[in-house]
Amino acid sequence: MTQFPCMLLLICGAATACTRAASEDAGIASSTPPTVTAEGVASAPAAGSVTAAAKPGASPAAPVCPRTGRWALCSVERRLVQSGFVIRRVEGAPPRRAGFSVLPAVYTLGRSRLEVFIYPSEATLAADVAKIDTVSAAPPGAKNPWPFFSPTFVRSANLAAVFLTDNPTQAERLTLAITAGAPQP
Q1: Which one has a higher pLDDT value, 47 or 151?
Q2: DSSP character for 44?
Q3: pTM for this structure?
Q4: Strand residue runs (E) in 124-174
Q5: Domains, the chain, ranges and CATH?
């Protein structure tokens, strides 16, 4: 008798997942929540996003991330919001980081800082990671370039991220959100 509630919960969860997948396959895409600035103003869609107008029969106002199987900034933002993070994009020119050949997108997550490096391919990322000490998220022997906390280095497909936080639970949540895998095509 104790197994019945568990089975009922499992069946309801599976039905919800199937309904969501069917609606996405039918072209009903969930929209990415806009990033809100400190002034409370929603920002434009992130770089790497595509408007729904590119899809036949879609609403021109709803942003849609490209479904390529690789990370894009819009898919990173969506994953972080779905994981319960409140993200805010840092405006201005991002810093160039030693060992990384691409510029990061910089976010604040509460008191923490996240720098996301999106590479054009996994091979390009692998070449950079081969020259980086992932414990310090810098070239081996280099002075610690990170302003506050010790870095948490995360890698998934064509994405590398450096998370600076003093909260180990938050670092684990972020790591799990990103290492769950790139969005599927």
Answers
A1: 151
A2: P
A3: 0.67
A4: 151-156, 159-164
A5: 71-179 (3.30.200)
